[in-house]
Specification:
The chain has helices at 34-42, 49-64, 72-87, 94-108, 118-145, 171-180, 197-209, 221-226, 252-261, 293-296, 337-346, and strands spanning 7-10, 13-17, 28-31, 153-156, 186-190, 213-216, 232-235, 239-241, 246-249, 266-269, 275-276, 297-298, 301-302, 315-318, 325-328, 331-333. By secondary structure, it is of the alpha/beta class. The protein folds into two domains: 7-135, translation initiation factor eif-2b, domain 1 (Four Helix Bundle (Hemerythrin (Met), subunit A), Up-down Bundle), CATH 1.20.120.420; 140-350, 3-Layer(aba) Sandwich (Rossmann fold), CATH 3.40.50.10470. The strands form four sheets. A seven-stranded mixed β-sheet has the order 6-5-4-7-10-15-16, with helices on both faces. Strands 11-8-9-14 form a four-stranded mixed β-sheet, covered by helices on one side. Strands 1-2-3 form a three-stranded antiparallel β-sheet, covered by helices on one side. A hairpin with a 4-residue loop joins strand 8 (239-241) and strand 9. Helix 1 packs antiparallel against helix 2, helix 2 runs antiparallel to helix 5 and helix 5 crosses helix 6. The two termini are 25 Å apart. The model is unreliable at 349-356 (pLDDT under 50).
Length: 356
């Protein structure tokens, strides 16, 4: 189950599965420089908060192969442009910043290393980050599967599977775990307009894994909830603030309100690197504005009349009061999130050693 491979490192280059081509074509793009990775992140060829972080780490490894410096201190200074360029690609997902901060600290922590050693060391860190993410996802999948009962129909949104992570998935990892446990589940996958991550990517992953599902348009969700056909909602996250507010794909907030109105549990699944304890609440999260053309057309074909304007915030903020629980690799937390998230991050005994 879940043999999808997003990242391939071969002969000094990174090959990324081009997610803009799925599900019609399985094509890998070659990244020989960190700027190629930055462009791939910016243009959604790789997407999903954990996958973006891993891609950025590989981008740093690519930069390390070309960067010249007399010592580790100078090396770190020159690497700052690489960090800055990668950070600028997607502002909402905090996992990207986590990865960059980790690699920056790694360089600073090794001032006596010979500069040429960083090539192999940073590549090793990127590969370890990918493996650790998969391990975290599998653990979160088991924890989250406890909320899924035999016979449940689960509604999910956007894409949170192997394509969005180092492997297995966050919210989709919970679904995979429940199915692997033998629970007779069904899935409703929202298409996730305007980029159709649900229709193109989640549907593809579920089909590959032979998990029973139906694809629905985003505006059908309330209908099925009202008819009691949805028992659980499971989504991922791009950033979670100290009070438990969640930034996720645009449309998540609407689903949370619908779930609340219909008394359906609404679970968020994300690794602790998604937590941003520096922000008190969701209104502080920067929301990425993408090209409105993505709303006006699809795959190069115009779907709206010429001469009109569109808006495209890529994310929205779901207030913590609508969230039943947050599943992380360190455990499951519930409200009051201000307290439970802080305790989670402070309690080293909950660390399952999946972080680098």
């Amino acid at each position: 189950m879940s043999s999808i491979q997003v990242f391939k490192w071969t002969a000094g280059s990174l090959y990324l599965l081009d997610q803009t081509q799925l599900p019609f074509k399985k094509k890998y793009i070659k990244c020989s420089a960190y700027t190629d990775v930055a462009e791939a992140i910016k243009t959604m060829k790789v997407r999903g908060a954990p996958a973006i972080a891993i891609a950025a780490a590989y981008g740093v490894a690519l930069a390390a192969r070309r960067l010249k410096a007399k010592d580790a201190k100078t090396y770190g200074q020159k690497m700052e442009k690489v960090f800055s360029d990668l950070l600028a690609t997607r502002p909402t997902a905090v996992n990207l910043r986590w990865a960059i901060d980790h690699l920056r600290k790694f360089i600073l922590a090794n001032p006596l290393r010979r500069v040429n050693m960083f090539q192999d060391l940073l590549l090793k860190e990127a590969k370890q980050m990918e493996q650790n993410d998969k391990g975290m996802n599998q653990h979160m999948g088991k924890l989250g599967a406890e909320f899924i009962r035999d016979g449940d129909t689960i509604l999910t949104y956007c894409n949170t599977g192997s394509l969005a992570t180092g492997g297995y998935g966050t919210a989709l990892g919970v679904i995979r775990s429940a199915y692997a446990q033998g629970k007779k589940i069904k899935v409703m996958a929202c298409e996730s307009r305007p980029y159709l991550q649900g229709a193109r990517l989640t549907a593809w992953e579920l089909k590959e894994d032979h998990i029973p599902f139906h694809l629905i348009t985003d505006n059908m969700a309330g209908h099925f909830m009202q008819r009691k056909e949805v028992k659980v909602v499971v989504v991922g996250a791009d950033r979670i603030t100290a009070n438990g507010d969640v930034a996720n794909k645009i449309g998540t907030y609407t689903l949370a309100i619908l779930a609340w109105e219909n008394r359906i549990p609404f679970y968020v699944v994300a690794p602790t690197m998604t937590l941003d304890m520096t922000l008190a609440s969701g209104d502080k999260i920067p929301v990425e504005e993408r090209d409105p053309e993505e709303v006006l057309s699809w795959m190069g074909k115009r779907t709206a009349p010429p001469g009109i304007k569109a808006l495209y915030p890529a994310f929205d903020i779901t207030p913590a009061r609508y969230i039943s629980a947050i599943v992380t690799e360190r455990g499951v937390v519930r409200a009051p999130y201000q307290d439970s998230l802080r305790k989670l991050m402070e309690d080293e005994s909950q660390n399952f050693s999946y972080s680098i």
